[in-house]
Amino acid sequence: MTIPAAKADEKVCILDFGSQYTQLIARSVRELKVYAEIVPYNYSLERIKDENPGAIILSGGPSSIYEKNAPRISAGIFKLGIPVLGICYGLYIITDAFHGKLEASNQKEYGRAVIDIRGKSSLFKGLKSKETVWMSHGDKVTAPPSGFKILASSKNAEVAAIENSKEKIYGVQFHPEVYHTVSGKKVLKNFLFDICGFRGNWSMKSFVAQAIDSVRKEVGNGSVLLGLSGGVDSSVAAVLLKKAVGDRLFPVFVNNGVLRKNEAEIVIKRFKENLDLNIIYVDASERFLRKLKGVENPERKRKIIGREFIKVFLQEARKIGQFDFLAQGTLYPDVIESVSTKGPSDTIKSHHNRVPEVLKLIKSGRVIEPLKELFKDEVRILGKELGMPDEIIYRHPFPGPGLAIRIIGDVTKERIGILQNADDILVGEIKKAGLYDRLWQIFAVFLPVKSVGVMGDKRTYENVIAIRGVTSVDAMTADWAYLPEGLLRTISNRIINEVKGVNRVVYDISSKPPSTIEWE
Ligand code: XMP
């Protein structure tokens, strides 16, 4: 399912060439209150015409335009009379289509760079003569096509931006959608409002109404089985789906044995009392733990849990009777780090929502993921729009594979118990200090490293708990969070004194990238 537009002419089509940043383009456009939809780069001309977009954005991508099978598009796209903005790889596509000159450069430019802006243009209206931008490229344009003007240059890219104002075709080497491009939002705003003439009247409210409509159309009279984890994503998906299909929604909550302390009880109570959702509860913890026994490899853990989930689901489904669709609260970052849905990007972690059984159902059109194009903060806005309580909306994210990927090495009952207790103390103290809502996530990680300690004059030889606290806006990048010394002291003392099996607590000071938020 894709996010519905407010109006056909208020829509941007983003052709995805596989950049990790493609969704950031969609998100930035939505933040400017214009509806954006990502489509594959090889979407046919006919389908683009049917979509009737008011603008086309060509995303970046990991390929070199010189590769044999480099993604390309029909030149007809530039003849539709629709304004086009090409970003990075998109700039090469434009340059190539209009016969400019490109060069494969052995000097890659990655990270912050400064561009010098030349002359005046609608695209760069309001920008300073020098601007800090985010670059990420290998190839470069050495001469713009005829009819195009150079708008900016950087040290490594003489042609850092081009325009053909008559045809309304623009290309930039840098990434305006990335936070580090200081005036990136302004560039997009100029493109959308001044060049394309959008008004900016799309909002989450229109999302709710039309997403419900779209689910109803897709589901018809069918029934929907939803995997509910109690986290923000699946909870918001549950409320949205309940509005769309009512009692034909069957939310199934599976206890996989690697949940947070008392999680199952809390979730069931909360959903019954606050959200009028009758959850089908399945305690499959023993089954999961048996499968995880002796497994240390993170990818294997993820895959085992993902597959077991779907098996449990399907068994439950058989008990309920026939079900027509499987619904998941999958968000965009979950998908992009696992496999690109639409473009040619790289795999980082296998997401539990993308195991082969689910992929098979996706192929046969039986999976509904109404939040698939959204980021977490957008889902929270949606949750608010749906009238959900803050305690659900503002919960920190919790990964599908749960504590299994926060226990490094073998997952045992004893280790789960230790980690649950340590995590409970940690989160409790953070809430008490009023810092919970300021952090993207904070959690404990069990390290199977034994070290020596001394307690009550006795030598101890126990495990280590690592604390991972990060700030982030979308989980695509994250900084380790600074916590006050006194609070760290309290947390460490309490964990070591109250949790049997732990005699050392350490604090993780790695940012993402190059680390990831979860340890596995
Ligand atoms: P990483 O570790 O990739 O995590 O930096 C980014 C965000 O995604 C969450 N995460 C997951 N969420 N299923 C989920 O539902 C998963 O398999 C999964 N793996 C990571 C993670 O907690 C962080 O917020």
Question: Regions with pLDDT < 50 over 5+ consecutive residues?
Answer: 1-8, 338-345
Per the CATH scheme, the topology name of the largest domain is Rossmann fold
Amount of helix: 25-40%
Order of strands in the sheet with most strands: 2-1-3-4-9-8-7-5-6
The CATH C-level name of the largest domain is Alpha Beta
Most strands sheet: 9 strands, mixed
The CATH architecture assignment of the largest domain turns out to be 3-Layer(aba) Sandwich
Amount of beta strand: 15-25%
In CATH terms, the superfamily of the largest domain is HUPs
C-alpha Rg, in Å? 25 Å
- Counting structural domains, the number is 3
The unique ligands bound to this protein are:
xanthosine-5'-monophosphate
Structural class: alpha/beta
Give the overall pLDDT as a whole number: 91
Overall morphology: globular
Q: How far is the N terminus from the C terminus?
A: 30 Å
Number of helices: 15
Beta strand count: 18
Describe this structure in words.
- The chain folds into 3 domains: 188 residues, Class I glutamine amidotransferase (GATase) domain (Rossmann fold, 3-Layer(aba) Sandwich); 190 residues, 3-Layer(aba) Sandwich (Rossmann fold), CATH 3.40.50.620; 97 residues, 2-Layer Sandwich (GMP Synthetase, Chain A, domain 3), CATH 3.30.300.10.
- The N terminus is likely disordered.
- Helix content is 33%, strand content 24%.
- The strands form 3 sheets. The chain has a 9-stranded mixed sheet, with helices on both faces.
- It has 15 helices and 18 strands.
- Strand 11, helix 7 and strand 12 form a beta-alpha-beta unit.
- With 520 residues, the chain is an alpha/beta fold.
- Helix 5 crosses helix 12 and helix 8 packs antiparallel against helix 9.
- Bound molecules: xanthosine-5'-monophosphate.
- Xanthosine-5'-monophosphate binds next to helix 10.
